[in-house]
Design a protein that fits this description.
Blueprint (H helix, E strand, L loop, with lengths): L1 H53 L33
Amino acid sequence: MAQLIETAEQHVALHLGTLTAQNFALACALERRDRLLAEAQARIDTLEAELAAATPSAPDRDGPEAPPPRSADGQADATAVPAGSAP
């Protein structure tokens, strides 16, 4: 009976050692993952800042400015008020 108990204790100790080693390996992997994620996020933030600095300001939402109004003979009408600029 004592031999059986001793064998069981050895078996449990072996599994405990295995689980401890696996736990340590997982903890190291998680630390590495967290470090890599933080580095990746920092790189993303840097690239977004560079992109924002390099992107010219967006044009007006109304689109490009309309051409000046024309008279019946096709000449620009200097007296006409361009669309969208009337008070």
